[in-house]
Amino acid sequence: MVAFEIHVNGKQRCIAGIGKPGVVTAALSWVLRAPEGRRRQGEELNLGVCGLVSRADEDLVWLQRAVQLGDEITIRIVEVRAADTPKKRRRDRATPALVLRRKKAFLRRMAKEFGWKLTTR
Q1: Burial of 7 (0-12, 13-18, 19+ CB in 10 A)
Q2: What is the pLDDT of residue 8?
Q3: Cβ-count burial 56-82 (b if 16+ within 10 Å, e if not)
Q4: Which residues lie below 8 Å from residue 50, measured CB to CB, with a gap of 6+?
Q5: Strands, DSSP E only, in the chain?
Q6: Residue 37: pLDDT band with limits 50, 70, 90
């Protein structure tokens, strides 16, 4: 299977691959949050190596960590018989009840953000 071999500062951290229909992603992100009205502020640098097994609706995480200025991240594309076992696996089957709970929670967050009061009949 095709996989990503990830090194941070010369040390191998994981070999991420799934070998079936899905997605594997290695991403570096930099975030600068504005201080106004935010719960968290400041600057972040992160490395994430994640995946999705399409048919099983299963999210995979091999690596999720903070990095810093000067770190060297190497991603090598390799062919392997087996990849590392993900550190986290999660199946998220969105049942109608779960979708409804998420919608209500989102509505409550937005109402709070806008200073609105929700009432029910």
Answers
A1: middle
A2: 98
A3: eebebbbbeeebeeeeeeeeeeeeeee
A4: 24, 25, 27, 59, 60, 61, 62, 64
A5: 2-8, 11-16, 22-33, 42-53, 58-66, 73-79, 88-91
A6: low
